[in-house]
Amino acid sequence: MYSNENKGSFDPDEKLEKWLESLFLDPNTSLLDQTQFRIDLYDSETEIMIEALLPNYTSSHITVYIDVSQVIIKACKTPNHTRERTVEFPFTIYSQMVSGSFCNDILEISISKKHMVQPKTRFITLT
């Protein structure tokens, strides 16, 4: 668990739960699920998981970028066929350990709540 000294990092209070609730009640989320690609978010004691359904793509078509409080997922087969989703968190994530994998049309991004790295914006290598 983080103390209050870690401002902006994962907060154990209801902040995350309220954010998830508002995200899924937002009509734009449903619209983006239909027009770009579907994403689901899961929360556990140790991590937050983002799953994106990306049929007909390969890992070479997908880019995952971590910014201060965002995960940006871009799927691009050709320059004219690009789909993108941004997940904006209510806290900073760029200092959290993040990993990603792509298998069977599903992109999985894990954001650790317990393990931190040197703060930086970065691209995530998919396994």
Protein described:
With 127 residues, the chain is α+β, with helices and mostly antiparallel strands. It has helices at 15-25, 27-35; strands spanning 39-43, 47-53, 62-66, 70-78, 81-88, 96-103, 106-116, 122-124. Helices cover 16% and strands 44% of the residues. A hairpin with a 2-residue loop joins β4 (70-78) and β5 (81-88). Residues 1-13 have low confidence and may be disordered.
Give a short account of the largest sheet: 4 strands, antiparallel
Structural class: alpha+beta
How many helical elements? Answer: 2
Percent range for helical residues? 10-25%
Runs with pLDDT <50, length 5+?
1-13
Strand content: 35-45%
Number of strands: 8
Strand order of the largest sheet: 1-2-7-6
Rounded mean pLDDT score: 83
State the order of secondary-structure elements, H for helix, E for strand.
HHEEEEEEEE
Report the C-alpha radius of gyration, rounded: 15 Å
Shape: globular
Distance between the termini: 28 Å
